[in-house]
Input
Amino acid sequence: MMRLNMTKTIRYPENHLLCQAPGSIFAMLLLFLLAGCASVEETTPETSATYLERAQTQSKGPIRVTASVPSAKETRELFGAPLYLRDIQPVLLTIENQGPSTLNFLPVGVDPLYFTPMETAFLSKKSSKGVSDQARARQFYNEGMGAVSVLPGETRTGFVFTSLDEGTKTFNVDLLSERDKIHSFTFFIPVPGLRIDHHNVDWENLYPADEWLEFDESAALIEALKNFPCCTTDKKSRDQGDPLNLVIIGDIEDVYYAFLRAGWDETETIHAGSLQKTIASFFSGGEYRYSPISGLYVFGRPQDVAFQKTRDNIHERNHLRLWLSPVRYQNVPVFIGQISRDIGVRFSKWTITTHEIDPDVDETREFLLENLAYSQTLTAIAYVDGVGKATMEAPRKNLTDSPYFTDGRRVVLWITATPTSIADIKVVEWRDPTDN
Output
């Protein structure tokens, strides 16, 4: 299932400093301000397909739901107002009911904090030039779709005005029939505009065919996981960084959707636009959910994909990095990863400023386990040694001299695409094959 490649590859000059810097994003911001980033190759993700051509359709029996999400530019053209700048994102839905029962659509299932059509019209008032208040309100009212009933044989189409999610838009469409049965449809729709890091990854060709290791027995997998590197490194593999305290077992697409379903945001690549947004967030203390994450190295390359959960400012967030390893277990890909929690910013002699991490990295590791469990994306969990123990009294340090302590274990998480109750998650008690 290695087919997650939704846009063309975006390449930067190999010798460009912004693409290589492993340290603080703020240091790169200063370089950006001083140098103007004139040598950054300006490329844009493919946007040739319109939002209607990017639509996705799902069917369950006699019910058919089609969803599409206009980009920022398309939204401005549709409504004559820059709704994305107000953190409003329209989602176009078409609900076809060929069944015998009336279906009730509730927009709160798409977004619990959705904007009503009239509210959206009011909020876009200042940016809608040359349009009367009455005409604007009528437009949004006519094109919006609130809580409606879809009769047998009927088709209803309209926009739900949701909170802004850039990158990939994730939402549910829930339809309640007269017999109190819920019909649920889950959508993951890429929206043009962001340059997401994993879009650059050629998953199929990360390793030559003869480098893959296939394991069917747990003892062989345990040994392989123990022998993975303990930590990330810098680009030249000279110094050790954060501990590799995370193992994910799951098909690439399932892993990706599991993190989105659990509320994690994708990460932008480092380019002029993302640096400008990072600058604004850094000095304002505001939120930038997709902020670039510096590259740490495993298997001789920076992370394949990064996810993050931000608080309301850029300095505080949970973030994780994943690398696809050359190991498959029972024909399923195995990822090695690193997770930590940024708790603030401090000065650094190496990179001017850097994020301070919570030194209890095991707590952040357990947060991820609980987060994915509550999101019903786990089938099993286990633990394996491999990081190496470090105590609070004698901590180790990462590449930016932030101390951390750990029990030395990695959590192993089996990801599922089928929602699984916490009560059904299997706890795997692995016995170390080297123990007598």
